[in-house]
Design a protein that fits this description.
Number of domains: 1
Radius of gyration: 16 Å
Helix content: 25-40%
CATH architecture: 3-Layer(aba) Sandwich
Largest sheet: 5 strands, parallel
Number of strands: 8
Strand content: 25-35%
Order of helices and strands: EHEHEHEHEEEHE
Oligomer: single chain
Length: 183
């Protein structure tokens, strides 16, 4: 299946503005940084969480706790992904019990990644609150999951793909809407 570009949803500046807005919203809802932790879901959720932590530190003077979460073994489609799925390291260097955790990811689609992340996180303890921040919400939920913080809502068809690029992973920042060429 070939994917062809259809539209640019966010350029580097728009992506930066969206993250800045989300960072402010997180601090406002959490009433500061005390007890706040940002946990990025591998792969692109990790740099999103780190950027949000950097932004919060810049305007609050204190950095929230942060971590990295691998959900591979919690996925309900594990057998469909690969015979030998790549398992990355989970690094949550703090006790999650009693904290306000903001799970960070790039795209919210069916909700299955968020469900797997919730399962993985709750296995570590009992946070006071778990919230969900995504750069793009594209719709098509299969589970009753919603994001608390959204950079951009983009209604899509199932024939379309939202591709987030982050400089830490892809060498550049931006969000594109792609379409299956045979759709």
């Amino acid at each position: 299946m070939t994917l062809t570009p259809k539209a640019t949803l966010m350029d580097e500046q728009e992506l930066g503005r969206a993250l800045t807005r989300i960072a402010h919203e997180i601090v406002e809802r959490a009433k500061g940084v005390d007890g706040l932790a940002l946990v990025g879901i591998h792969t692109r959720g990790v740099p999103i969480a780190e950027r949000l932590a950097d932004l919060i530190e810049r305007f609050e003077g204190r950095r929230p706790m942060s971590g990295k979460l691998d959900i591979t073994l919690y996925r309900d489609d594990l057998t469909e992904i690969a015979l030998q799925p790549v398992v990355r390291k989970t690094e949550v260097p703090f006790d999650v019990s009693g904290t306000t955790i903001v799970l960070c990811d790039d795209v919210l689609y069916t909700g299955r990644t968020a469900r797997a992340a919730l399962d993985a996180l709750v296995d570590m303890g009992r946070p006071a609150v778990i919230q969900y921040a995504v750069l793009v919400d594209r719709g098509h939920r299969e589970l009753p999951i919603r994001a608390d913080y959204v950079g951009k809502n983009v209604p899509t068809s199932r024939a379309e793909v939202v591709k987030v690029k982050l400089r830490e992973v892809d060498g550049e920042d931006g969000v594109q809407l792609l379409e299956h060429a045979d759709a």
